[in-house]
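Deliverable D5.2: sample structural annotation.
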Amino acid sequence: MRPGAFSRGPTSSNRWPMIKRSAVRQHLLLALPSALLATLALACDPPAPDVSQLDVPIVDGTFEEGEDAVVTVLPFGGVGLCTGTLIAPNVVLTAKHCVQAADADAPYPVTAFTVGVGSDVRSVRGYRARYVETTPGAYSSNPRTGLSGAIIGVDVGVLILRDDVEGVTPIPIRRDEPRDMIGQTFTAVGFGQRPDGPAGLKYKGDGVVSNLTGGVLYTEQTICQGDSGGPMIQEAPERRVIGVASFGQAGSCPSAADGYNSVYQHLDLIDRALVLAGQCLGGEEVCNGLDDDCDDATDEGCADFGEACEADTDCAYAQLPDFLPPALDAAQCLEGVCARPCNPLAPSCDAIERAGVTIPTPGLYCQRTSGCEGRCVAGSAGSALDGTDCASDGECASGHCVDPGDGRRRCLPLCVGDAGHCPVGEACAATPEACGACVDAGLVVGGRGIGEPCASHDDCHGEGVCEDGACTRACTTDTGCPDGFHCAASLCARGGRGRIGDPCEENDDCGSGFCASAGDRSWCSRFCEAAEDCADGFACTTAGAAQVCAPEGALFGESCSADADCGEGGICSGGACTRSCGAGASCPLEHACTRDDEGRAVCGRPSGGGCAASPGSSSSGGALALLLGLLAFVRRRPAG
C-alpha cells in the first residue's frame, strides 16, 4: 500500500471493484487442484480450501504481522480473495461484492464463506459463518462500462461467525459521519495485490481522505484487488473503522481514485448483525428488550409488566428498534398498565424472545380478554382441567369458563371454528374463523368444521365433505389444510408432518423431510453441526459421514413412567410418551387429538388404541449406540 492523496473524486464511470471478477475467477479455478474442485461442486458445507494453492499478487505497503482484527474473506463462489474486519468477536464487516455475485439479488449461501485470521493467507486460522447479509439490490460489473446498480456507496456486507475469534481485539465502527476526516490521514490494511511481493500477505499503509460524497470516502494510491472489504481506520481520538474498501478506477492498480464506503451510512445493516450475533451496541438504555448500554441488564429503569405507564415506550420489552424485525409480543401500555399480548389458544408468557435470546419473564400468565385475544399479566393460571365445573376463567387451566348451552358452566378449551382444533368426537361451538369452545359434538347445532363428526356432506360447513365420519375438505398440498392436518389423496387428513422426534416411516412423514432409523426406532430428524441445532432431549450425534439429531430419552409413543421421561413438552399418558394437543399444538401423522383417562387432550390413535410403545423400543444407551455405527444409521432419501 502506498500513501498519497488526491484533490477530486473519479471522473470516469469506468470503476472496478477491488476484485476483477472474471480474471480472478479464472485464475482461482486454474490454481485449485482438480480434487478440490470436485469437493466444491459436490459438498453442501465443504472444508476450507487449501489456501496455499492460491497465487494472487499482493499490493505494496508494509508487511503487517499484527492487526489481527483484519481478516481474509474467502468465498467459494469464485470471486477470490477479499479482506474484512472483525468489528465484534464474531462479526466481520466486508464489501458486498465480496459476498454477492454481480447480477445476483442475494448473497452466496452462508456455507460458502471461510474467514481467516492471521497475516499470511497460507497459514490463517479458519472460521465458518452462520449468517450473511448485504445492502439490498443487485449490481453489475462490466469491463467496458464499469459499475452500475446497487454498488457505489452501498458496497457493504456483514458476516456472523459460528464461533467467537478468541485472543483478537475487534476494531469498533464509528457511529457518526466522518466529515472531519477530510484532509486527514487514515490507516489501510489488506491482503490485496502488490507488484513486488509474495502471495496473500497482510500489508498496512496509510492514505489521506480527499472527499466524502454520495456515501463514499475518496482517496488515491491506496488499495487494489484483494483489499476489497478492508478497513479505512481512523486512529484518533479513538481507533474506529470509518470505511470499507470498494473500488478504484479501471486500468490501474492502485489507482488515482480509490473509494471506500462510509460505515456511517449503513448502521442499520451493521447493527442488525451485531444484535443478532448477541453483541451489545453501546449507548443509552431504552425500553426495547435489548441491553443497549452493555451493563448485562435489560431495560433497567423501565416499567415492568403490571406497572403503571403512559406510553408503550415506558414499558420493558417494548418494540424492538426499526432495524430489527418487529416483535409480535412487544410490551404495550394497555389501560395505563404495562402488558404484552398473548394467544390464549397457545398461551406462553414465561419467556420473551429478543434477537435470538430467550429472556425469562416469570410470574406471568396469559389472561383472556375477549374472544381469542389475551394479555400476559402477573399471577398464575388456574389448574382446573377441561370439563371441571367453574365460576370464572381464572379457575381453569384453559383460561376459559363457559356454559356451552346446557346450563352448566365448566372449563373448556378455546378453539376457532372450522380450524380442526378440537379432540375427536368434539366440535367447536363457533362459526368459521370465530372464537368458541370445544364441546361434545351433540351440543353443536349447524354446520361442522374440519375434523368434526358428521353423517353426511350436508353436516359440514361450506364446501366441506364427510369422509369416514368426519368433515374434511379438498386440497392439493399441505398448505391447503389447517395445522394438524396434511393433504392425502386430495383430502385433508388428520395429523401433521412430524416435528423432530415424531414417529415416521419415510421422509415424507416429516416436516424436515428426513426420517432417521436405528434398530427398531424411527424418528423425524435433521442434520446438525452442534447441540444447539437440536431440540432439548436430542444430541447432535455422528452417524457415518453425517451428524444428526438423535434422541437422548424416550421418543413419541415409547414407554414411560413419568412426564420427565418424555423430553421437553412431552407427557406420559397411559404408559406411553405423547403430548398435549389442540389449538396451536398438532399431532403427528396417523394420530389425532383425543381425551385420555384424566380428560386431558393428548395425541393418540383415532381408533382409541392410544400411543402404545413399539415392541422392544426403549431409550436405552444400546439403541443410541446402534445409531453411532454407520451400518445402523439409515437416511431415507426422498423419491426423485
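Annotation notes: The chain has four domains: 15-271, 287-378, 417-494, 507-635. Helices lie at 21-31, 34-42, 96-99, 267-276, 621-628.
The annotation will be released with the project's public dataset once the embargo ends.
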